[in-house]
Amino acid sequence: MTEHTLTVAGVAVDTRHWIGGERVASTETFTDVSPIDGSVLGEISRGTAMEAAAAVAAAKAAFPAWAATPRTERARILHAVADGVEKRLEELAIVETTDNGALLRSHRRGVMPRVAHNFRFFADWLLKLEHEDFETRGHTNHVSWDPAGPCVLITPWNAPLMLATWKVAPALAAGNTVILKPAEWTPLTASLLADIAAEAGLPAGVLNVVQGYGSEIGDALTSHPDVRRISFTGSVPTAKLISASAAANLTPLSLELGGKSPLLVFADADLDLAVDLAVEQYDNAGQVCLAATRFLVQESVAEEFTRRFVAKAGQLTQGDPRDEATDIGPNIHPRQLEKIDGFVQRAIAAGARAVIGGHRKDGQYYAPTLLTDVAQDSEIVQEEVFGPVLTLQTFATEDEAVRLANDTRFGLAATLATGDPERAERVTAQLVAGTVWTNCFFVRDLQAPFGGSRHSGVGREGGTWSFDFYCDVKNTVTAPNGWRNHG
Questions:
Q1: Which residues are CB-contacts of 87 (< 8 A; sequence separation ≥ 6)?
Q2: SS3 of residue 314 by DSSP
Q3: Most buried in the list 309, 312, 346, 372, measured by CB within 10 Å?
Q4: Which of 91, 96, 256, 384 is catalytic?
Q5: What tens digit of pLDDT does each residue of 118-133 get?
Q6: How does strand 253-256 pair with strand 457-458?
Q7: Contact 317, 325 (CB under 8 A)
Q8: Which of 158, 428, 143, 135 is nearest to 285 (CA)?
């Protein structure tokens, strides 16, 4: 071990940046702390504008050769990265759980396998990416996807590696080079990904990882004139800053932002299913952007729905996320816990009633909470809490349900529980959301478009939509009988 290596549950993690195929240390560091018990995991290199510039320069230098690499070879390397993820799945799972507090069982069984799948999916999609040629007055139109150049990818802390690879995999598959900036609260698995990519044969400079605090390094990355794409997942205020920073260079943006998504429960729904969907919103301690945090329940079944929900939620076990029996782990950071509790206490002071929860527990744990008697224009209904806090309102008619569902500045997702397929079709058509789930939740196919409406984001990624964003899409028009030589 070296001074730049920390050990997490027996796994060695390099704390330096990964730039141009080499480890690079900063003179300053920041402290990484586990949300499970508040223990210090280690000191992480704290990047500045200097490291940002070096990473962009490395990505720019590596771009021509990687862009010219045949599709089959790019796909082969991405599959090798997936192989490396699968080989180190247990290590990635325990490091991620220690760093961000999400359930170890989920990382083992779902999240880390999905990380590998992200690379395999986009490697395979690359090989079949094409549009049929079409004709215009005898002229042939041929659509192609040209790699754009260096891409800055800024990722969140709630599912660090999985959400990073939703971006890294398509960006690399498209022939771009990448500068990945992980969230400062959860930097560790991005460092491991750099090791895995290097072992898989990804050329130096194609993937770069820089760590740091927000604007210290973020502004230098997003305002850099050599950056050709920026993809960000996180909060609306940060997205506004990134958009302003990118504006000077007209750098294209993909933004997946917050949500305040509704769960609409109609009287004709299977109530047991609806309750199961509702309790699922406590997943990852409520730290899921897609979570349906606003329950809108038809008046005639609201009392029964609430009774069943309270009983079901009461069966959840909250505690150490490394324990197989745990259902809800800690929240990410003391600052976030204070924010969550502030929302709840202000809501209660304004007249809301905590049916369950409504208080902090020991450490960085917040009791699963359901608030009723909340006004539509109240802060707790309108603003994203990003914790295990849900609200319940009632409605009388279908029109009222749609009105309440759409009455926020967000539009990321919506979930609908109904036994009437015609109602589902009517309501879905009226909901403002990038994704609508009917009688299910969190079913995500990578070939489908993903993104938000209104303040929940800009653009769509997934399948061909990802390549449309990470490439300069070109149309080549050829004249009929145009191959005559001069002379």
A1: none
A2: coil
A3: 309
A4: 256
A5: 999 999 999 999 888 8
A6: antiparallel
A7: yes
A8: 158
Tokens, residue 429:
């058509």
Any catalytic annotation for residue 256? yes
Catalytic, out of 91, 184, 289, 471 = 289
Cβ atoms of 375 and 347 closer than 8 Å: no
DSSP string, 73-106: HHHHHHHHHHHHHHHTHHHHHHHHHHHH---HHH
> Euclidean distance between the first and final Cα of the chain, in Å?
72
Examine the pLDDT at 98 and tell me if it is beyond 60. yes
Q: How many CA atoms lie within 13 A of 129 on its CB side?
A: 28
471 is catalytic: no
- The pLDDT, as a whole number, for residue 483 is 65
Side-chain half-sphere CA neighbours of 143 within 13 A: 12
Task: Dump the DSSP string for 221-288.
Answer: HHT-TT--EEEEES-HHHHHHHHHHHHTTT--EEEE-----EEEE-TTS-HHHHHHHHHGGGGGGG--
Which residue, chain included where needed, has tokens 């003391």? 334
Q: Quote the pTM value.
A: 0.95
To the nearest 10°, the Cα dihedral for 340, 158, 185, 380?
-20
Instruction: Provide the pLDDT confidence category of residue 223 given band limits of 50, 70 and 90.
Output: very high
Which helix (H) or strand (E) segment holds residue 339: the answer is: helix 334-349
Over the stretch 309-359, which tens digit does the pLDDT of each residue have? Answer: 999 999 999 999 999 999 999 999 999 999 999 999 999 999 999 999 999
HEC secondary structure over 109-177:
HHHHHHHHHHHHHHHHHHHCCCCCCEEECCEEEEEEEEECCCEEEECCCCCHHHHHHHHHHHHHHCCCC
Q: Residue 190: name the closest of 309, 75, 99 by CA.
A: 99
Beta-carbon contacts of residue 404 (< 8 Å; ≥ 6 apart): 262, 294, 296, 376, 393, 395
- Residue of 279, 263, 268 lying closest to 318 (CA atoms): 279
